[in-house]
Amino acid sequence: MIGLALLGVLALTVGGCVCVVWAERGGPRWVRVVATLTLTAGELVRRAHRNRSRSVNRGTSGDD
Question: Per-domain residue ranges for the chain?
Answer without folding.
Answer: 15-55
